[in-house]
Every structure is written in C-alpha cells, then in structure tokens.
Design brief:
heterodimer, A: alpha+beta, B: 18 helices, binds protoporphyrin IX containing FE, binds copper (II) ion
Chain lengths: 170, 540
C-alpha cells in the first residue's frame, strides 16, 4: 500500500484534532457532569391524570425537602402545563416532562433546556438559567398542525426577588 | 460506447430522480415564503405541513435513491466494462420503487400523510404512505443485489486485480444501504404498517425512534458516497490531473461504511428512552467518522493542486487560478468543498454530546442539512448529471456556459438560504414551524433573516429550473457529440500490492455486524425488558 508522507501527516493531524474534541467532551461529561437528558424512565401516557406525579393538581414548581427545586410539567397539544412558571436565576432546577399525547420537544431559547418528550417516557433535565427575563418555552418537534402555536412562558427572576415574592409558593 | 440497456436504465432512474427534485424545489420555495409570514393570505398550516412532508420525502428518499441506483448502474457497466447482470431484476427494482413512490405520493399530496419525512409515531399517516415507503426501499434492494453480484463475479474472474475504485465504492455503498435500511424496515414493517391498518392498537414511540435512528445517520453516507465517487474518480481528470491517492480513497470509503453505521444515537442525544452511556459511545463514533471526510478533503484538494500545477500554476496559490473553473465537474467540486467546510463545522457542533442541546431541533438543524445535503451532495449530483448526460444520450450538453451559471446560482442560493437559517436557530427558532406566532419579543429578531431566506430560495429555484432546462434541451436539441467514453481519473502510482483485506467483504460484514450488535443490541433489547407503555394513534 502506498500512502504519501504528506497524507500520513494529514491523517495524524486529523486524528489529533478529533482526539482533542473527544477529550474535551469526555472531560466535561465526567468531571463537569454535563450529560444530555437520558433517564430511562417509563410512564403510562394514557393515565397521566391519575399518576402520583403528573396529575393536574401536582404540576408546577415544587421545593423539595432538601431545598432543591423541581418543576413538573405535562406537554400536550398545544401547550406545556402549567402555562406560566416563575423560577429563580442561577439555581439548579430539575425539570420533569411527560407527554399526554404525541411526540413533543421542549426548548427554552438561548439555554440548554432542550429535550424530546416521548410519550411513555419521562424526560428529565437539570439546568441553571443565568440571565433573568421572560422566555418563551417552545415546542421544537412537529406535533400536529398547531405545532407552531405550542408554547408556554418561563420567567426567570433574580434569586433574591424570587425568594421574597415567590419563595415557597409554586 | 455504453450498451443501450445500461443507458436506458440510468436515464430512467435519473429522470425520475430529477423530476422529483424539481417538484420538491417548487415546494421548498413555497415553504420559505409561507413560513416567513410576510404574505398572510398564504398562511395555512395544513398546506404547509403537507408540502414539507412531500418536499422532505421527495428530496431525501426519491431523488437520492433513484439517483444512486441510476449512477450505480452506469458505474458498474462502465468501470467493469460489462453489461448489467440480470437487467430484468434491475427493471423490477425500478418498477417497485416507482410504484412505492406513487403510492406514498398520493396520500402526501392529499394531506393524508402530513407526518414529515421522519414519520415519528404516534402521529399516524394513511397506511398507503408506509406501504409506499417500504416498497421504495425494497425496490432499492434489487439494485444492491445487482451491484454486489456484479462486483463478486468480476472479482472471481480477475482474482489478482483490485476492483476499479468507483466500483469498490459503489459495492460498499450497496452493502451500507442494506445494513442501513434494516432499521427503518423493521420499524415500518413490524410497527407502523400493522398499527396503521388497525391490527395492533398501540405503538412504542421510543422503540420506533431507536430503530429510525439506526437508519437516519448512515443514510446520509448512502447519499454522500456518489458525491465522493465523483470527487475521487471524475474531478482529478476533469481538472487535468491525477488522483493523488487511490489507496487513501479506498480507506476513506471503508471508514465511512464501518463507522457510519453504528452511530445513529447522535439523533437521540436528548431522547429520554436511551441512557447517557450509549449516547456517548455513539458520539465517539460520530467523531471518528469525520476522519474519512477530513482525508477526502485533503486528497481531493491535493489532486486539484496537481492539476493546477500541470496546467502551469506556480507559487503557493497560483494553481488555484489555473484550474478549469468553467468545467462543471471542477467548479462543482470546489463549491462542494467550500460548503463541506462550512457544513462540517456545524456538524461538529451538532455531534458534540453536550453542545448539541443548544441547537437540537432548532432552525439551525434545517440550515445545516440543507448546506451539506442540498448543497455539497446535490451540487455533485448536478456535476454527475452533466458528466453522464452526454454519455447517455449521445448528445453534447446544450450549453457549456449555462452549466457553470447554474452551479454558481445554486451555491449562492444555498449560502443565502442556509446562513440565516443557522442564525435563526441560534436565536431559538424551532424547526418545522409554518408560522411565527409566539408572543415574544424574540420573534421580532427573526424577521430580517426570513427575508434573506426567501431570496436564497428564489435563487435556488431559478437554478433548479435552469438545470432541468439544460437536461431537457440536451435531449431534444443538441448536436451529436463525439466523445462518449467514460472518463475515470488515474493515479500516478500503479497499484502494487493493495492488501487483500480491503476487498474482503465477508470480513467487513462480520465487523459491521459486531459493531451494530455492540451499539444497538442492548438499546433495542431494553424495550422488551422494560415495562413500557404503548401509544394509541393520533391525527394531526
Ligand atoms: C429550492 C431549494 C430549497 C428550498 C427553498 C428549501 C426549503 C425548505 C424548507 C423551508 C423546509 C422546511 C423546514 C422546516 O419547516 O423546518 C425544508 C425542508 C426540507 N428540505 Fe428543503 N429546500 C430546498 C431544497 C432542498 C434540497 C435540494 C434538499 C435535499 C436534497 C432538501 C431537503 C429537505 C428535507 C429533507 C426537508 C425536511 C426537513 C424536516 O422535515 O424537518 N431541500 N426545505
Ligand atoms: Cu410541537
Ligand atoms: Cu446523523
């Protein structure tokens, strides 16, 4: 086999570049704990309203006994319920989504809150929002003719304001 | 001169491919205009999603499959210098694929299959749509059989010679397609068809997405390999030079096939039904498969440099100016490489395990695959068409001046379409929306970009029409042409001892099987151990 020395050099450069990228990804995953949402957890989509966690009166923001914040939402054509939530900035928040009908996706623009919501599975993401403001929470997977009308609202307020005005009240 | 049977086969396949392409381009232009919201009278989600579903299916499945089959028949007959093995089988495959296309097109155009080209359940389409899609794939398996048999028979008769490079790549592509299509075939035959006929009540969308992801990545190499064949086998000669390295080209094709298959989970990075470790594994494979492409870029550029210097180019960059820029094959290659560099950069971002969450399912993704698929890949399809058309019809290309104009139009249109599309994604615009209705200030920032996209779409449509015009005019009006021989590039180094393992297809099949088992075995098996809940069908 004949491989030109120049070409050999280029292959090494390519390998090194790819190796570098993979190294960065592995480091951020293992040390930084940055993983995409991946909890393999199932739920009956036809009985969400009867479930412990996703019944209508259980939805929204919850402060857990250990002080961490959890937001439980149901995705259904065409909205994410509850339609409006207020969360503190710079605080880790765990979102849990379930779909009551078809495939949806959820994205808070300019942030890494982005996950598919597959019926039959619970999608879970933990993230922090550094910048306060009003954000639209958009559906980013085709879910029917009303897909472009599927949004809810997330308001990120700074930590102090949140504590004083919304603390403890979901 | 190529035998009449091969010419007819190839012409028919390419004609179906390009008719689908032209229809889909008209739909594409309508889509950019509709979604911008600038013309309120046009707004209709119903028409929009019927259109995007048809556009996606025509471009991703019909254009590609028919083009690849047609080009494969040409490659096999000309590089092996023999007629097509069992042409009746080839025609049967053609007929089956065409029947499937028509069966799927009817519900698509009637708005009875507005499920997009990914048809994710539990939104349900008319059963005819799934049956049509299945037949399209089954028809293409006949092509795979013809390609594999022709390669093996030739090998048996020429034990000491390596397959010609173009045929080596085509054989690998047939193998790749057989492995690739298994995922979606399982999904369609075992899940979607019985469910859409009402034989089963529920479907597991998690399993369906996993099987679809099996197909969704390697299918892009199925589309891309013909473009790479042109880059390696036609471009160096058209530019007036040699292929820099035949061996590296073979390794690149092999790498695409081996590493392209077991990595589909990068489409499921943010899916809840698969665990992080599997995603990371597929993510690593995704980066590895960038290597054959990086190598291709180098080898093709090196071949162009050889040509430029043989044409008298001097100095570090002087060879660029002496390339025959007016030659459609060379021009396409240059423009394709430019788009590949831009698109490859975006691809690295998409592939990045964690960074992907910033862009997943935003308009960025549509921008990305238009750039690299509708851009890099399709522009090479144009080049191949210009190269083949005179050899198939016996007529000179109708205009040698308009062909470069058409290619420049496509390139500028694609840059103008896909650049704002990427920006829109970074500004948070989701993909697959028919209008911009969100009550948010954010959407104001989207408007100017929509306008540029319309301009890009207009240029692309103009280019597509010019392309169709050139091919039709060549058929009907051109003078006879003399030079009808196939023109494959040569390499300055004769093959000395090409290792036999390169062509040990049995070995590669076993390795692919092992890789697929490793990367998909447990992720698919888990659905039979987990307590999962199916979904009932939903309309749209
Ligand atoms: C005239 C040129 C073209 C224009 C203006 C155009 C425009 C569009 C638009 C606006 C969409 C809808 C995207 C969305 O709603 O998010 C779309 C989808 C799509 N386009 Fe094109 N396109 C063109 C050419 C092509 C070509 C040449 C290909 C590939 C060969 C292609 C492949 C696709 C595919 C596969 C989809 C489906 C995407 C999905 O379902 O999310 N397009 N195109
Ligand atoms: Cu949606
Ligand atoms: Cu992929």
């Amino acid at each position: 086999m004949h491989i030109d020395p120049l070409e050999k050099k280029w292959v090494y450069i390519a390998l090194a570049t790819i190796g570098f990228f993979l190294g960065v990804i592995a480091l951020t995953a293992w040390i930084g704990g940055i993983y995409p949402p991946s909890n393999v957890e199932t739920i009956n989509p036809a009985r969400l309203h009867l479930s412990e966690e996703f019944a209508e009166n259980k939805l929204g923001l919850k402060i857990q006994p250990d002080g961490s914040i959890k937001v439980v939402m149901v995705a259904g054509r065409y909205g994410f319920y509850p339609r409006r939530i207020v969360v503190p900035a710079d605080t880790p928040i765990t979102f849990r989504f379930a779909s009551l009908d078809v495939l949806h996706g959820v994205h808070l623009p300019m942030t890494n809150l982005n996950t598919m919501i597959v019926p039959g599975y619970i999608a879970q993401v933990t993230t922090k929002f550094p910048i306060p403001g009003d954000y639209p929470l958009l559906c980013n997977e085709y879910c029917g003719l009303g897909h472009d009308f599927m949004w809810s609202k997330v308001t990120v307020v700074d930590k102090q304001t949140w504590k004083h005005e919304f603390g403890g009240r979901p | 001169m190529i035998d009449a049977q091969t010419r007819r086969l190839t012409l028919w396949h390419l004609s179906v491919a390009f008719c689908a392409f032209l229809i889909a381009c008209i739909l594409g232009f309508y889509q950019v205009v509709e979604r911008s919201g600038i013309f309120p009278a046009l707004q209709s989600a119903k028409v929009y999603f019927a259109s995007v579903s048809t556009h996606g299916v025509l471009m991703a499945y019909v254009l590609t499959t028919f083009f690849i089959m047609g080009f494969g028949y040409y490659t096999a007959a000309t590089s092996l210098k023999r007629p097509i093995w069992h042409p009746t089988l080839a025609w049967a495959g053609f007929g089956l694929s065409l029947l499937g296309t028509v069966l799927a097109a009817i519900p698509l155009l009637l708005g009875r299959a507005s499920v997009l080209y990914t048809f994710y359940p539990p939104i349900q389409a008319s059963p005819w749509f799934y049956i049509g899609a299945a037949l399209l794939v089954v028809g293409s398996w006949a092509w795979c059989a013809v390609m594999l048999v022709m390669a093996l028979v030739w090998k048996r008769e020429n034990a000491n010679r390596p397959l010609p490079l173009a045929m080596y790549a085509t054989t690998l592509n047939a193998l790749l397609w057989l492995w690739t299509s298994v995922g979606v075939a399982l999904e369609v035959v075992l899940q979607l068809i019985p469910w859409s006929l009402g034989w089963t009540q529920t479907i597991d969308p998690g399993l369906a997405r996993t099987l679809f992801a099996w197909t969704l990545h390697p299918i892009v190499y199925f589309w891309l390999i013909p473009a790479y064949i042109a880059l390696y086998c036609f471009v160096p000669k058209a530019a007036g030079g040699f292929l820099f390295s035949d061996e590296i080209a073979r390794l690149a094709f092999l790498g695409l096939v081996l590493f392209g298959l077991p990595i589909g989970f990068h489409h499921l990075y943010v899916d809840p039904e698969q665990a992080a470790g599997w995603k990371l594994l597929h993510g690593i494979g995704t980066f590895l498969v960038a290597i054959p492409t990086l190598v291709t870029g180098f080898t093709v550029l090196a071949s162009l440099e050889i040509a430029g210097r043989l044409n008298g180019g001097k100095g570090l960059f002087g060879w660029i100016g002496t390339l025959p820029w007016g030659n459609p094959m060379v021009l396409s290659a240059i423009l394709a490489l430019l788009m590949l560099i831009l698109g490859g950069f975006g691809g690295i971002i998409n592939a990045s395990y964690a960074l992907n969450t910033m862009v997943h399912n935003t308009a960025w993704v549509s921008g990305h695959f238009h750039l690299i698929f509708a851009g890099t890949t399709v522009i090479m399809y144009f080049a191949i068409a210009y190269h083949l058309w005179p050899r198939l019809t016996g007529k000179a290309l109708y205009s040698n001046h308009l062909a470069p104009v058409q290619l420049w139009l496509w390139f500028s249109g694609m840059v103008l379409l896909s650049t704002p599309w990427h920006v829109l994604g970074l500004l948070g615009q989701p993909r697959r929306i028919s209008s911009v209705t969100y009550h948010s200030l954010l959407t104001l920032s989207w408007q100017p970009y929509e306008l540029f996209m319309i301009m890009g779409g207009g240029l692309l449509l103009a280019s597509a029409i010019l392309f169709g015009y050139l091919l039709v005019k060549t058929l009907t009006h051109s003078a006879l042409q003399a030079d009808l021989d196939p023109a494959y590039a040569e390499t300055p180094y004769p093959h000395k001892n090409l290792p036999a393992w390169l062509e040990n297809f049995k070995l590669w099949n076993l390795i692919i099987g092992a890789l697929m088992l490793l990367s998909f075995g447990i992720p698919i098996a888990q659905f039979f151990f987990l307590k999962t809940y199916g979904s009932t069908p939903w309309g749209y």
